Every structure is written in structure tokens, then in C-alpha cells.
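for the recovery benchmark. C-alpha cells below, seq after
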């Protein structure tokens, strides 16, 4: 029996019921919130391992809920969107979603996405390694990143995807990774757009800049990205 608790945030009770049945059949414990306000109230008292979040809902839409979930922590989020276009998908990933599924969908596909997201996040948290450079330290066991501008420790709040990216870079500092390599390592579903890497790195770079370590993620024109030392 899987101990992971999945929170479904969906105002369509029929869709929620179908997803619940499939997830329970896969061994997950499932909770359901019919709107964003109820979802945030649930997260304030419980700690779901993953959230399946619809974009269009009453009270609070999915974008608002996702922004608040990200403000509070790094719970993995899979967005459900009715728009099969790059703009909506990139918006979800840019704000901090870990994956997205377009409606109408095969419920079995959603279960597979849940398993993939949980698998990669749980692999990270089981590691006991600590990686350090002059500018930052990553504790894989605690799933934490600390940057060190001017000798002061600052812990920027990163999404799960951003944490995977910075961890991948810090394992081999100064190596240039192509977008395809980063896709394979950090987006294992295999259907993610190459420019999605640029979107996530742009947001990660902005967070590191705000923490006082500008220039840490470097763009090598025509090749990809690497982790250098901060300016």
C-alpha cells in the first residue's frame, strides 16, 4: 500500500471521482477539495505529497492557488488545463508547477504522471549527500539550498523543478549542459518542450540573483548552461 497522500483540487466532482478511483486503485490515499480556498485550508493542516490542481475553478483559480502553494513550500503540483497550447503550459511551469496534463485526459496517464513526479522527488530526498561551492550549499537529504553572499546564509525558496536543476548543476560545476541533457535529467517524462528549460532557469537565476549571488547560472551561447561562481 502506498502511503502518499494526493490532494485533488477540482470543482468538477465527476472528474475528481474518476481520478480518485484510479489513484486509489494505484494504492494512493486521496483527498478532494472543490475549490482553491478549501485546498489551501487543507494544506494548512495537512501535508499532501502531491497536488493535482485544476486551472479554472470558482473562488480562487488554479494560478492563484499555485502561487500560494509555492509561497508556502515545495509540494509537487500537477496542473490540469483545458488549453492545449504552449502559452498555458509554459505559464504553469513558469509559476512553479512540476507538470501539466491537458483535458480531456486518460486517467491512467495522470496516475503515471503522479508516479513519475513522486519518484524523482523522493529519489532526491533519500540521498544523504551534501554539495558545496564557494557560493552555495545543497543538502539533498533535507532538500535545502543555502546561498552565501558576503558570508551570510540565505535559503531561497525553490520549486521542486528548480531544486532538481540546481542539484544537477552543482554535481559538476563549470560543466556546460545542453538543453537536451537538462531535459533528460530533470524532466524525465520526455514530452517537455526544450524552451521550458529556459523558462525554469530564468526563474531560478532570478531567485539566486535576489538572494545576492548573481551570475551563478551562466548561459553559454550555442551550447547550454553551466554553474560558475557568483560575481
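predicted aa per position
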Amino acid at each position: 500500500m502506498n502511503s502518499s497522500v494526493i490532494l485533488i483540487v477540482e470543482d468538477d466532482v465527476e472528474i475528481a471521482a474518476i481520478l480518485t478511483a484510479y489513484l486509489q486503485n494505484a494504492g494512493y490515499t486521496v483527498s478532494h477539495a472543490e475549490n482553491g480556498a478549501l485546498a489551501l485550508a487543507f494544506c494548512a493542516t495537512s501535508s499532501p505529497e502531491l497536488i493535482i490542481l485544476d486551472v479554472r475553478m470558482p473562488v480562487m483559480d488554479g494560478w492563484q492557488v499555485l502561487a500560494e502553494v509555492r509561497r508556502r513550500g515545495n509540494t509537487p503540483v500537477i496542473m490540469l488545463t483545458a488549453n492545449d497550447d504552449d502559452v498555458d503550459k509554459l505559464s504553469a511551469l513558469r509559476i512553479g508547477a512540476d507538470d501539466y496534463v491537458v483535458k480531456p485526459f486518460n486517467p491512467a496517464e495522470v496516475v503515471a504522471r503522479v508516479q513519475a513526479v513522486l519518484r524523482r522527488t523522493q529519489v532526491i530526498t533519500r540521498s544523504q549527500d551534501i554539495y558545496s561551492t564557494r557560493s552555495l550549499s545543497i543538502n539533498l537529504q533535507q532538500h535545502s539550498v543555502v546561498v552565501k553572499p558576503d558570508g551570510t546564509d540565505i535559503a531561497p525558496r525553490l520549486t521542486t523543478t528548480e531544486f532538481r536543476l540546481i542539484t544537477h548543476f552543482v554535481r559538476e560545476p563549470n560543466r556546460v549542459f545542453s538543453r537536451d541533457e537538462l531535459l533528460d535529467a530533470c524532466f524525465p517524462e520526455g514530452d517537455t518542450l526544450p524552451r521550458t528549460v529556459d523558462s525554469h532557469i530564468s526563474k531560478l537565476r532570478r531567485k539566486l540573483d535576489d538572494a545576492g549571488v548573481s551570475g551563478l547560472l551562466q548561459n553559454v551561447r550555442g551550447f547550454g548552461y553551466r554553474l560558475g561562481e557568483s560575481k
